[in-house]
Amino acid sequence: MAFSADGALLATCDLNMVRVWDAATGCLVQQFSADSIHVCSVAFLGDGATLVTAGMAPWLTLWESATGKQLRAMSAGHRARPFFVTVSPDGNFIATAGDEEPPPAPGQSRPAILQPKHYSVRLRDVASGRELGLRCIGGGHATFSPDSTSLVWTGFNKQLHFCDISTGKEIRLLGDPTKDSASFAFSPDGKALAVVDADAVQLLDGQTGDEIWRFARAEKGALPFAPIAFSPDGKALAVSESDAVQLLDGQTGDELQRFPRPQAFAGFRCMKLCCTSNGDIIMAGVGNGTFGLWNVRSGKELHWVSKHADQVSTLAFSHDGTTLAIGWYDRLLRLIDLRDLN
After folding, report:
1. How confident is the model over 253-280, as pLDDT tens digits?
2. Distance of alpha carbon 22 from its chain centroid, rounded?
3. Lowest CB count within 10 Å: 33, 112, 190, 322, which one?
4. Which portions of the chain are predicted below pLDDT 50?
5. How many other CB atoms are there within 10 angstroms of residue 126's CB atom?
């Protein structure tokens, strides 16, 4: 699922159906079929007037959000299929992560375990549909910088790949190749990139990848997937640990505050963190058969869902941090206005 840049619309995909929702009311704005193609990923371009979908076919499709009209299709470049698509904030570039293992010949089967060579990240210009120079083998989830000048993605070599959009060339590898670097986030102005591995939180220069500061994690050898989020002004960075949420100074890396988790959230798997425009820090997590929201600063438990809590498939905060969308494997979608909870 994906929010439009202004947070007014939410797009979801389910099998071959694409749906566009009014994020404020939860009303269905438009739905349309992507023919027989199983859609795996969806993203808005620019102002939200156009959607791009990726799925079980080696191409991308652009749609008019308001009408569901197909505008055009373009090759995704992958030998098999793209399974993830994201769009640069300025709407000019599309990045996909996809499968390079072609369909097996009749009577044969795909490899039981796919290797890094079977995946890639590719970059395309939206206006021309032309593929840029980037064809990174072994790539996964990708994120554009807020100023649309850089692209970072996770690699199967346990490092992050850092690319210059203007040239389509990889600038450098980030992180220790002996440690998984799973969590990363750009600062709101794109000038810094925060990266988490098993031992530390790093702040890197958003243009060069050079290290600015490093903060040792309290839990040495902890799981590298520790959700992180910048404050809207970029002056603070929130990091989720198993027993607390830390607030670090965005300039120096010094710990500003530590918020121990309340007992009700002990053992929860944090799925996402969000720093809202009014200064709140919201943690969304799953544990003990329950989905819960916690206002980290106030300590207030905001929202609980018991039914199907262990089947939450995806979460998305709107860009302004006012709305949370929750998707379940049983095709239930819930929109929560966080302002009402506070």
Report:
1. 999 999 998 888 887 888 899 998 888 9
2. 21
3. 112
4. 113, 116
5. 20
What total of structural domains would you count in the chain? 2
Tell me whether residue 127 is in a domain: yes
CA–CA gap between residue 23 and residue 16 (Å, rounded) = 22
Q: What is the pLDDT of residue 104?
A: 61
Q: Is 243 inside any structural domain?
A: no
User: Which helix (H) or strand (E) covers residue 340, if one does?
Assistant: helix 338-341
- Per-residue model confidence as pLDDT tens digits over 223-258: 667 889 999 999 999 999 888 999 999 999 999 999
Give the count of alpha carbons within 13 A of 304, CB side only.
10
**How many residues comprise the chain?**
342
Assigned token pair, 300: 């207030």
CA distance 205 to 251: 11
Q: Quick one: which of 180, 134, 135 has its CA closest to 157?
A: 180
For residues 35 and 132, membership in a common domain is answered with: yes
Give me 178's structure tokens: 């002996």
- Structural domain of 86: 1-104+116-174
Pairwise CA distance, residues 268 & 198, whole Å: 18
Q: How far is CA 332 from CA 179, 180, 301, in A?
A: 36, 33, 23
